[in-house]
Each structure stands twice: as C-alpha cells, then as structure tokens.
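Sample intake sheet
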Amino acid sequence: MLERIITALVLVAVVLSCMFATQSHYPMLVLMIMAAGVAGYEWFKLMPRKAEHLLKPRAWAFGVFTAAISALALHHTDMALLLWGASIISWLFSVHWVKTYPEYDGWYHPILYVIGLVLISAAVTAIFDVWENSPWWLMYLFLLVWGADSGAYFVGRKFGKHKLAPHVSPNKSIEGLVGGVITAVIIIVVVETVYLDLSIAQHVLFLILSIITVFSSVLGDLLESMIKRRAGIKDSGRILPGHGGVLDRIDSLLAAAPVFATGLYILNLIGVDL
C-alpha cells in the first residue's frame, strides 16, 4: 500500500508540474510523447502473436513508432482531428466487442496493432489540446474521469448486485455505473454553476458532452480489461510500482480524452466560448 501511495504522489506531482508550473509547452509535450511510447510498448505486449521471439525489442520498436506518430500529430492539428475521429469510430465498434465477449472474439486480431496506434495517439494529442485550451479544462477532464471511477467503486462495493459486464470486468456493476454518473453530474453542476457563464442551451450542450465523456471513460476501462483478459495478462506493465503499467492508469482517458476534445472543438465551432 505504501508503495502504491508513493507512486501516486510522484505521478500527481509530475503531471501537475507539467500542467501548471510553467507556461512553456515543452514539459507537457515531452510527457505526452513519453506516455505514448510506453503505452505503445505495453499495448504491443497485449496483442495476438505467434511467437515470443524478440518480443521486447519489437514491443519497444512499436512504442517508439507510436511516440513518433503522436509527436507528429501534436504538431499538426488536422492529423490530430483525424485521429480523434478514427478513435471515436473505433470506440463505437468496441461497444459490440464488449457486449459479445467471450462468445465473439474475432476482434482479437492483428488489426488491433493499428487500432492501438490510433487510440493512444488520439488520446495523448487530445489531452495536450485540452491542456493548451486551458490547464483547468484538463483538470476538469481528470475530475470527471476520476470522480466517476471513484463513485462507481464505492457505490458498486456497497450496493452492487447487477453485473455490468461480468465476463469482462466482474467487479463492475450497473449500480456502480449509476453511482459514478451521479458523482460526475455533481462535479458538472458545480463547475457549470460556479465557473461558467452560459445560456441555458449552452449549459445543456456542455452537460451532454460531459456525460458522454463519462460513459466513454467506462468503455475505455472495459476495453482494456477485456484485452488483458483475452491476452491472459493481469497488468499491462510494471513501470508504475503498485499501479501496473501506463495503460492501466490511462485506460479510461484513452476513450474520454478524444471525445471531450472533439466536443470542445465542436462547441467552439458553433460559438460556445468556454
């Protein structure tokens, strides 16, 4: 437990420092590229393969390639937008995969290499874009995801009876999901009431975006759990003592970040200035 707490404190300190300690974009940029590289490495090790020959060198090569694609997208807005769109489409398909697992596992196919490249690159570019918009918007995204996850955990632990996806993540319940959504709604209402000066229609649009972001975060968690279960692996990695791998920490954000960033982009296009 102590190891887990120390790792969490170090992670929080590093992320918050990159977010708030300087106006330079380089610390956050480097953090995102590094996260993409390690996540790519971990993703490769979860994928279907015929042999273990040269697994680590090939996994690191994939990680470097993922980091390179992410770095390129971080400097080209059009490429980032394409990645966000492709990511959202992939997540829509994954709803069917989660619902039909384990009866159907045709998704566990080498195409997952491409999907992983898209999901990871889309997530890190979306996180960076939200941060560039405002570090406080990124903090809001984190609060939404973490708040929903915490609410789901405590409510599910106390009242959970009906399993959400028993073959994918046996500990998750429908009651927990409801608790997570209620927790997120409280966060949304507080932020809208205290910090945002919007019309009723704009408030409704922002509420819808935030709730969709919460549901997408749940899907991100379920998809990673399903892939790990199919691959027969408990944690995606061991780089974070007590917490597993980078993918284990950002699984919810893989889906939530592109959805939220895309929503902010669309709201800005239609004249909703946040």
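Comment: The beta strands are 163-165, 169-173. Residues 200-231 form the longest helix (32 residues).
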